[in-house]
Specification:
Length: 573
């Protein structure tokens, strides 16, 4: 252990707030909200200390905590982070308090249980990003599954149970494949070395010379790599998700409450890309090369398919969900191009998607709280009635399209250029075909903005008729314990002195001089969730150098097996 157990403290601090909410009898809903919010803010502040390490200067794992946990089977409590892990931990700790703030007035039933689930989810995600033992990673990976399924299934919309079960079954299927791969890797290492371990640094650094071997392909033979890589890859592909194992995602996003969609899109999907970078490439490089052409084809299909299916969606939230399938296709496209520029693009897309898509789901949730529908046809002229909302929505529309000066452009441009340099005609064709998404994403996002923000504001009678038209598929069950209700709750205090909003803000609306509906514009609480994301999107879109500097050493080492190095170097041994 490198002294102070910072990573354990970051990972388990949310459990302190969880236990406080769980143990204190008859804790009020407001107290539970504040407890969860302050705990998550403290976790974010603590995670900033990760910058005190040397991730900008080396790929060596930082803040190591390595303790023999179960000696009989060689399982270790081993935590550590490099630049990649730091980026994802910070993304998790940033989005968690924003998601809690976003649910302040929309989750009004089983409030204590909701915030317990949110804090448990945060611990599971952080733990997965800092684990360097495969067993420990698997525990945290599974731990994050449970609260997310509960968040969707209890606090979601009308078809929440269906979506939660579908999410759970898909992810569980991938987890079982991963477990088989973990056991196979463990047994292979033990058979050849007599050492029981699941430490990924050891698994990637077998004693080849002592065994009379000269390469990793002799230790992990090609047939073994193919089967084990395939099991790991499918598990992570479901999480990304890649086409054709993506079908759980639109349902999960559509039915989840706003906070659930933010954490799912912003962080949980990144577990897939992270797993491919942390395990698939360093441990099984020969299999990665073997399967890369097929993965490039699937990635290209996901990029184009997600954009095409997003285009005709009548549901605002479902459109954003399908756009995630398209954007995350760039992640796998970049990862399996096996060069530094492509990996930089893939990881920047992960970071950008975490900011931009989380913000889009926040914006959808905010309009849903006012109008109680997500039907695109129910809206028109929001730029007149809600100018601040429309301006921020337009900014994140540009970010989602990949406008230069936004993080999305930086990531997708690097991923495409890196893929084009992949070395074969297939890579170049994949890159060229994938550029079509520039047109498609502009089409579905700008058309969405035109429909909801431009034109004459919808009149009261017209809006009610349009909303009713989609009520059978969009409205939550009014008797559901998970309905994001109209009831207003006190907001966190604001620097503008508007700590609470109108108790009827979610039910009542005014009309403008033309008789159009005038919903209240963004409140300080809502702005507090969007402004940080917008600032980071612009900052690192204009000046991405700090993110690339944080990632460069970690990504270079991941690529060592593909440049004639060893898999051990790929993990910063």
């Amino acid at each position: 252990m490198d002294g102070f157990p910072l990573l354990s403290l970051i990972a388990y601090l949310p459990l302190v707030g969880l236990l406080a909410i769980f143990i204190v009898p008859r804790m009020s809903a407001d107290t539970a909200r504040w407890t969860a919010l302050l705990t998550s803010i403290a976790t974010f502040a603590l995670s900033l200390l990760l910058f005190t390490g040397d991730a900008f200067g080396t790929a060596t794992m930082q803040f190591n905590e390595d303790i023999l946990w179960l000696p009989e089977v060689g399982i270790r409590y081993h935590l550590g982070v490099d630049g990649l892990g730091i980026m994802l931990v910070l993304l998790t700790t940033l989005l968690t308090p924003l998601a809690i703030i976003a649910s302040w007035s929309s989750v009004n039933t089983r409030v204590r249980e909701f915030h317990i689930a949110m804090l448990l989810l945060e611990t599971g995600l952080i733990g997965a990003f800092v684990s360097l033992d495969l067993f420990l990673f698997y525990v945290f990976f599974e731990l994050s599954l449970i609260p997310m399924a509960l968040i969707i299934g209890i606090w979601g919309s009308k078809n929440r149970v269906y979506a939660a079960i579908k999410f759970f079954l898909y992810t569980l299927a991938g987890s079982l494949l991963m477990l088989v791969a973990i056991v196979a890797t463990y047994q292979r290492y033990f058979t050849l070395t007599g050492i029981r371990t699941l430490d990924i640094l050891q698994l990637a650094n077998p004693p080849l010379q002592q065994l009379g071997m000269t390469s990793m392909s002799q230790f992990y033979t090609l047939p073994f790599q193919y089967y084990v890589f395939a099991a790991f890859f499918i598990a992570f592909a479901i999480k990304v998700p890649m086409w054709p194992v993506h079908t759980w995602l639109p349902d999960a996003h559509t039915e989840a409450p706003t906070a659930g969609s933010v954490m799912l899109a912003g962080v949980m999907l990144k577990l897939g890309g992270y797993g491919m970078l942390r395990f698939c490439l360093p441990l099984y490089p020969d299999a990665a090369r073997y399967f890369a052409p097929a993965i490039m084809v699937l990635s290209t299909i996901a990029i184009i398919y997600g954009a095409l299916v997003a285009l005709p969606q009548p549901d605002w939230k479902r459109l954003v969900a399908y756009s995630s399938v398209s954007h995350m296709g760039f992640v796998t496209l970049g990862i399996f191009s096996f060069n530094q520029q492509a990996l930089q693009g893939a990881t920047m897309v992960m970071f950008a998607h975490g900011l931009n898509t989380a913000a889009l789901f926040l914006l959808v949730g905010m309009i849903y709280e006012r109008a109680h529908t997500r039907e695109i046809a129910a809206f028109r002229g929001l730029s007149t009635t809600m100018p601040i909302y429309s301006a921020i929505f337009l900014a994140f529309t540009f970010a989602s399209i990949g406008l230069p000066g936004m993080t999305g452009f930086v990531g997708e441009f690097h991923a495409l250029m890196g893929a084009y340099r992949g070395g074969t005609d297939l890579y170049r064709v994949a890159a060229i075909v994938s550029t079509a998404v520039v047109i498609l994403s502009a089409w579905y996002m700008l058309w969405l903005y035109q429909r909801v923000a431009q034109g004459t504001p919808v009149g009261a009678g017209e809006s009610h008729a349009l909303a009713a038209h989609g009520a059978d598929v969009q409205d939550a069950d009014p008797h559901s314990p998970g309905l994001e209700t109209r009831q207003s709750q006190p907001e966190p205090p604001s620097t503008h002195g508007q700590g609470q909003h109108d108790d009827h803000a979610h039910d009542d609306h005014g009309t403008d001089q033309h008789g159009g509906i005038r919903w209240p514009d963004l409140r300080p609480r809502e702005l507090s969730t969007l402004v940080p994301l917008l600032a980071l999107t612009i900052l690192f879109g204009v000046y991405p150098a700090p993110v690339f500097a944080l990632l460069s050493h970690a990504l270079a080492n991941i690529l060592r097996p593909f440049d004639g190095g060893t898999a051990a170097a790929a993990l910063g041994r």
